[in-house]
Specification:
The chain is of the alpha/beta class. Helix content is about 20%, strand content about 30%. A hairpin with a 4-residue loop joins strand 2 and strand 3.
Length: about 140
């Protein structure tokens, strides 16, 4: 983030409810990073924490017939992060990324900083630009 010149802030918390309490941050403003398996590759889906990922929508976003959750070991090998702390930034291998379209409703969003309980606060435009992501209606 620093190297890219992106304004950001790091927040530490135990649970999303802890992060939201007294900070003015809505739970839907906090996004989780999920690694999914497509027929020929892994990809990244980023959705609000309170929502579930629609695998059907994720498949459509990437132009394939099916998508499923990646095996945890594959997600960790690919990203370089442990499950529960996977960040959309700085992954070992850059994967195609889709972010839920609700991201544009916020002036700032939070996503994993690469460690469980640590989040980065960034502008949605920076999240999309730095991950080269598309937006799609991914959440159900």
């Amino acid at each position: 983030m620093v190297k890219a010149g992106v304004r950001h802030e790091v927040r530490q918390f135990e649970m999303v409810a802890d992060l939201s309490r007294g900070t003015g941050i809505a739970p839907a403003q906090v996004f989780k990073t999920l690694i999914i398996a497509l027929p020929a590759e892994l990809a990244v889906a980023v959705v609000p924490v309170p929502a579930k990922l629609s695998l059907k929508a994720a498949a459509a976003a990437f132009g394939v017939a099916k998508a499923k959750m990646a095996e945890p070991a594959a997600a960790e090998r690919s990203s370089g992060y442990v499950v529960g702390g996977i960040s959309p930034f700085g992954q070992r291998r850059r994967l195609r990324t889709a972010v839920d379209s609700s991201v544009v409703e916020w002036d700032r969003v939070l996503c994993s900083a690469g460690r469980r309980g640590w989040d980065l606060v960034v502008a949605p435009a920076d999240l999309l630009r730095l991950t080269d992501a598309i937006t799609w209606d991914l959440a159900i």
